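Q: I'm writing up a methods section and want to include an example of the input and output format. Could you take the sequence below and give the corresponding predicted structure tokens, formatted cleanly so I can copy it straight into the document?
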Amino acid sequence: MNHALADETVQAYRRDGYLFPLEVYDADEVGLIHSELELALRDGRQKGLDADLAQLLRTNAHLLLPFVNRVARAPQLLDRVASILGPNLLLWSAEFFIKPASSDKIVSWHQDLTYWGLGETDEELTAWLALSDVNTESGCMRFIPGSHRQRILPHRDSFDETNLLSRGQQVDADIDEDEAVDVVLRPGQVSFHHGRIFHASGPNRSDGDRVGLVFRFLTPEVKQVVAARDYAMIVRGVDRGGNWIHLAPPLRNFDAADIELRREVQREQAKALAEGAAETLHRGYLG
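A: Here is the clean output for your methods example:
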């Protein structure tokens, strides 16, 4: 693995629950991603999807856009993920996180794994790729170091419209903001974080959109324990566990059959996401 992480870097991830900044994609690659995103948006509009594009990008974009799969499968990313999770890797979700310029939208303190139906597993990892400058002004993520070593804690649902999370969920714990680490990234840099780490992000006070492309990686041993079934793509190695319905990457942008498949996947994942919710979920982020 040419891009494998050093042992001490892996240990830092296990201690802190995050790593950043990782230099993964160069300026040319970031430019290509932006170009392919613009092309995909044009394709979507030509297919009459104008009203749905924001949501189609927000969750499970890897089921609809070939270039998202190419970015997710880049050796310089997967080598680093494999350093932590091992040689067999599944891509469970890919999402564009776009926080508009001069936006009051926030993400409250939460643990991702609370609502995914994947249990308390350590065999998952989120890779957050910056496609714009991501800093405190633009509403970068914030982590509480070491908080992933706790179990999944109870969360409160606010359903606040300014909250980008699907339930406006907030971990029921005292958060010492002075301990928080700001995840500042330049375009092409990546952060990793564990699904139990406490994290949040503030409003975008800058004059540019804050844009991230986020990948959720699992090992085949992870199981969906709330919904009846779940889906993933093999991106490296093999899966002999039988816990997942395997999906193939799309061949073209926003193919009608792929959109229907995504609806099926969304329906199943929503069963886990909505478990115990007192209200209908708004159209926010998965985690």
